[in-house]
Specification:
- The chain is α+β, with helices and mostly antiparallel strands and 107 residues long.
- Helix content is 19%, strand content 43%.
- It contains one helix and six strands; from the N terminus they run E-E-E-E-E-E-H.
- The two termini are 25 Å apart.
Length: 107
C-alpha cells in the first residue's frame, strides 16, 4: 500500500495498492505474464465495501502492459463487499490505522 497516496474524505479512503505476483499471473486480455498489479481503490469503512477506480498491470521489467480506468457512479459507488480475511480488508485496516495516526499528529 502506498501510504503517501492515502486520502480520506468523510468515510471514504482513496489509496493505491501494489501487489506482486509470484508466480506471475495471466489474464485473457493481456498476452504477457503479469508480475505486478497496481490498483487505485475507494474503500468505505461503515459499509465495508469498495470499488476499483483504476488498475495497472506490469511485466517483469515494470513496463505497463495494460491499464483500465472505471467510472464510478453513486448508485454503485461501492460495488464489492470487503470479505473478512481478504487482502482488501488488510488494506482497509491499514488505511484506518494510518488515518488515525495522521489525525493524532495534527491534534
Amino acid at each position: 500500500m502506498d501510504a503517501s497516496s492515502l486520502k480520506k474524505y468523510d468515510d471514504d479512503y482513496y489509496v493505491w495498492a501494489l501487489e506482486e505476483h509470484d508466480p506471475p499471473i495471466s489474464i485473457e486480455s493481456i498476452d504477457k505474464k503479469i508480475y505486478k498489479t497496481r490498483t487505485y481503490l475507494i474503500i468505505n469503512k461503515p459499509s465495508k465495501r469498495y470499488n476499483i477506480i483504476q488498475i495497472i498491470f506490469y511485466d517483469i521489467n515494470n513496463n505497463v502492459l495494460k491499464s483500465y480506468s472505471y467510472n464510478i457512479s453513486e448508485p454503485v459507488k461501492y460495488a464489492s463487499p470487503i470479505l473478512e480475511g481478504s487482502k482488501i480488508e488488510s488494506v482497509m485496516i491499514k488505511c484506518i490505522m494510518l488515518s488515525d495516526i495522521k489525525k493524532a499528529k495534527s491534534n
